[in-house]
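Help needed: design a sequence for this.
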């Protein structure tokens, strides 16, 4: 529990420090985001991981919705949806805490104890002039104790966020 309180305190400090950044959420379009990296990086069932996300440009109080699909090289799948908050440090650095809930199938991979799983994490990215971003993301996935078995897992991925308008440009 002390670790959760420490993480919450650190996140609060980051939110306060970054709140007055030079760019704003209104400057960014909707994104298609790709993740590639490691699944279960903290344990003994490590696998490759790939995600595809749609991040909306609609925001309410700076909070934006997103949906995604994760697949691992061990045939695990996770479809999820949630909310994120972009916090800007100047015009280039974007810190993005996010939370989601979704449905998980372990395939030949790690049994997380439930079909319903929650994901929380952060991303740190560099934003280019065209608003595309390259970054690194760290996430925790677990069922939050709704099942007797709740091993949880951590993921570490590289991210590429492309403005939706550039992905489907002529």
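Sure. Designed sequence:
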């Amino acid at each position: 529990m002390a670790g959760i309180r420490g993480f919450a305190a650190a996140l609060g400090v980051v939110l306060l420090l970054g709140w007055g950044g030079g760019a704003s959420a209104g400057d960014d379009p909707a994104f298609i985001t790709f993740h590639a990296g490691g699944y279960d990086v903290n344990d003994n069932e490590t696998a490759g991981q790939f995600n595809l996300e749609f991040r909306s440009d609609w925001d309410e109080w700076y909070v934006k919705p997103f949906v995604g699909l994760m697949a691992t090289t061990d045939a695990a799948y996770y479809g999820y949806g949630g909310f994120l908050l972009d916090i800007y440090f100047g015009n280039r650095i974007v810190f993005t805490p996010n939370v989601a809930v979704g449905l998980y199938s372990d395939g030949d991979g790690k049994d997380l104890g439930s079909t319903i799983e929650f994901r929380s994490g952060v991303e740190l990215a560099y934003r280019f002039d065209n608003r595309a971003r390259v970054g690194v993301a760290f996430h925790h996935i677990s069922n939050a104790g709704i099942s007797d078995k709740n091993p949880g897992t951590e993921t570490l991925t590289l991210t590429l966020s492309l403005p939706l308008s550039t992905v489907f440009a002529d």
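Confidence is low (pLDDT under 50) at residues 1-11, 13-23.
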